[in-house]
Amino acid sequence: MATITFVQGDITRQHVDAVVNAANSSLLGGGGVDGAIHRAGGPAILNACRDLRASHYGKGLPTGKAVPTTAGNLPARWVIHTVGPRFTHEEDRSDLLASCYRESLKAADELGARTVAFPAISTGVYGWPLDDGARIAVETVRATETSVEEVRFVLFDERAYEAFASQMP
Ligand code: AR6
């Protein structure tokens, strides 16, 4: 099992092997952490995403899946793009959110990444309640077999940091 750490900060500044992006299925960028990663990483990431769309994901990357690209100018080697579910009261999409963490760790294993930084997937634009998103994130990572040595949750503000850090027993 990976060692889990928590930091408050900007995921684009993390010196890790792979940074996970809370993307959307178009893979063409957006706001929030997605916008920050593309801005800081430069056009190489978008070019790689366009290639992926052309070769594999013409209909978009499905929710809960994950796919890696170069990290461009970021201090990381790779960006792993995953698509979180939008929160809704009508349907329980928890397993799709858990799948983002599982599939990202699987992609990290395939890359040989030893250190991986995750944002709080789905808890921004996609509206997932922060405490529940934190619980799913930490429980899923703790339950996933992986060769990754450190999973670092990078939380943008103090509220998110507290929500995540308080999930550890
Ligand atoms: N570093 C770490 N965390 C960040 C950063 C950053 N630089 N910037 C924002 N966050 P969101 P989602 C936090 O909205 O809910 C995009 O438009 C933020 O405070 O980025 O999965 C995509 O293209 C929040 O806690 O992702 C999709 O359309 C967390 O990252 C959609 O948003 C996730 O917020 C995805 O929505």
TrEMBL record:
Boundaries of every Macro domain copy: 1-169
Any single Pfam family the record assigns to this protein: Macro
SMART domains listed in its UniProt record: A1pp
Superkingdom in the source lineage: Bacteria
Signal peptide: none
NCBIfam families xrefs: PRK00431.1-6 (NF001664)
UniProt-recorded name of the protein: Macro domain-containing protein
Organism: Streptomyces hiroshimensis
